[in-house]
């Protein structure tokens, strides 16, 4: 079906494009009769007004920026879509800014604030290890989305929406222990990580402890810092090393699904099978975890709910309805074919 | 390792942040001695200046917009990174705008031109079926990147960088035929597609013809239009229908790797194997094709080269070095484990 455009609507109505635009945007400067006629044509022809363009035009000074670390991380793709929809629904325009792993997101945000006259900021992903002084340099409301915060921050200094990474990580390791696994390797973040990496590692340690399993540091495997973090490639390289080291283990817990897929590939390359030789579990609930062979056992984050709530909190802050707030969503253990009981 | 910021550098040098910024940006208004001292501190401490922020500040009126259809398509993720790097290297700032599948990208571009005083536009992905009149509404140079164009366009009206989708599609189907496959299903785009979907389908038809195989329309399976196109989900749903129809086939050619992965999942769910029961081939050369089990036979597009050349052509147009040009890169047949000879 050919999409019809604003030009087509204008032609059908025998008016100019500007007039159609005025009708759509409720502009006062249009004859009511003309307006109803145009709206009827729009309705009859299922024309979908081009929201992006409209919002860009109307709302130059009403912009929400989303700053994202790791744009190649598929976990964020779904969230970006929801952010855009929710922000446009509020009649704000949406600005997506990628931040490199080695960039300081607050510096980027401060510049953006000036240039774009932002009304609010969403920080998505990444580590977050800024001083309170630094945070106070931001003059517009902001929300940290899916960024686990270590303890050094005072909750009253910022707002956040995420899962409880420690608790959810605990659950999946607890599940592996309950399946009889005692030698569970982890693919973890560098030990100076103070964000989701640390929290998920802490959950792993706590679950082992509660099951009376000693922490074996030989089974704690750190993502390579010269490869993009949380990627399939990183999980692949780390697992190849783990397998080559001949350390004894029956399960691998990767702290993201992408890492878990890389781990599976490394296992296949040594002629071993998942889950027959090694159980592999991930975290996040990416679509590919369902499509992978075997499908990947994971903790699914409620991505859509988190993204919607992020925007809700941000607008509540903008409208001064609330002071800083922290929303925690539960994740869901999804048991699939990549893990087995011993 | 804690990243050091511009504020840290300023403290170490005993100067203000503005002075550090002037040193980094080669601002004339700074004492040469102070400047060398600052640059030495920067070097000694491995401080990486925050390019995004710098460019945002400096180049508000020198912006290149990248308009992308299908931001969730992992094929584009790698390209976006290269675009950003190349554009920043030219000291322009980079603006990423998502375009919905049902949006008119030219309308979006026209609005953006006005708002952002753009110097150039990259259209990435999607169909492209605009009239010449429409294209002439764009007043700044633009390049179509990885958008295959059907014949209705005059090459002198636009510039493009892509692979030859018809020829490369031909190659992979030719390969399947040479492996002895005669009943090759295709997961294709809707028949009114005038872009890469049509070209890849035409390559399929031509390869069959050259091998003396009659086109069997029962084996031509169209992506669902109520599911995002070129996705794993679409390939999964279409392949489930194909398998349920009991049409006889030995190979499935999906016109993207994501579709191919969805196809594999559908095959596994019926208890069949890839490639033992069905060979499956994709197109694009996504990373996941390597990590999938079995790894996916595909036509790999030279993503980095295409992205770099796109920016080069765009700047040649901006600097009026060239008139419209069309760069075609070869793709590479990557034979992996998802296909077998009969």
Automatic annotation (TrEMBL), chains A, B:
This protein's record includes keyword DNA-binding: yes
HTH lacI-type domain: residues covered: 4-58
PROSITE patterns referenced in this protein's UniProt entry, alphabetically: HTH_LACI_2
Gene3D superfamilies named among the record's database cross-references: 3.40.50.2300, lambda repressor-like DNA-binding domains
Domain of life: Bacteria
Protein name: LacI family transcriptional regulator
Keyword annotations: DNA-binding, Transcription, Transcription regulation
PANTHER family named among the record's database cross-references: HTH-TYPE TRANSCRIPTIONAL REGULATOR EBGR, LACI-RELATED TRANSCRIPTIONAL REPRESSOR
Alphabetized InterPro entries for the sequence: HTH_LacI (IPR000843), LacI/GalR-like_sensor (IPR046335), Lambda_DNA-bd_dom_sf (IPR010982), Peripla_BP_I (IPR028082)
Record-level Gene Ontology MF annotations: DNA-binding transcription factor activity; transcription cis-regulatory region binding
SMART domains, sorted: HTH_LACI
């Amino acid at each position: 079906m050919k999409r019809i455009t604003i030009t087509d609507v204008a032609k059908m109505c025998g008016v100019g494009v500007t007039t159609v635009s005025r009708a759509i945007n409720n502009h006062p400067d249009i004859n009511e009769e003309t307006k109803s006629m145009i709206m009827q044509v729009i309705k009859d022809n299922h024309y979908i007004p081009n929201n992006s363009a409209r919002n860009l035009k109307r709302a130059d000074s009403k912009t929400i920026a989303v700053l994202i670390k790791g744009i190649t991380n598929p976990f964020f793709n779904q969230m970006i879509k929801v952010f855009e929809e929710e922000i446009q629904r509020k009649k704000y325009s949406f600005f997506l800014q990628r931040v490199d792993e080695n960039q300081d997101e607050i510096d980027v945000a401060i510049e953006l604030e000036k240039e774009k006259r932002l009304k609010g900021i969403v920080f998505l992903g990444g580590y977050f290890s800024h001083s309170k002084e630094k945070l106070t340099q931001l003059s517009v409301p902001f929300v940290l989305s899916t960024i686990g915060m270590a303890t050094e921050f005072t909750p009253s200094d910022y707002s956040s929406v995420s899962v409880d990474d420690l608790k959810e990580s605990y659950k999946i390791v607890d599940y592996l222990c309950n399946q009889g696994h005692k030698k569970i390797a982890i693919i973890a973040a560098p030990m100076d990580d103070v964000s989701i990496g640390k929290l998920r590692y802490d959950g792993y340690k706590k679950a082992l402890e509660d099951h009376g399993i000693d922490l074996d540091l030989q089974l704690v495997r750190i993502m390579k810092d010269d490869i993009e973090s949380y990627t399939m490639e990183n999980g692949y390289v780390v697992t190849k090393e783990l397998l080559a080291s001949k350390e004894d283990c029956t399960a691998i817990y990767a702290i993201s699904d992408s890492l878990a897929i890389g781990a599976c590939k490394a296992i296949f390359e040594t002629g071993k099978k998942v889950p027959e030789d090694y159980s592999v579990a991930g975290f996040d609930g990416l679509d590919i975890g369902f499509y992978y062979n075997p499908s990947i056992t994971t903790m699914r984050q409620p991505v859509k709910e988190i993204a919607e709530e992020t925007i809700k909190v941000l607008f509540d802050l903008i409208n001064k309805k609330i002071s800083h707030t922290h929303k925690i969503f539960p994740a869901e253990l999804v048991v699939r074919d990549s893990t087995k009981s011993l």
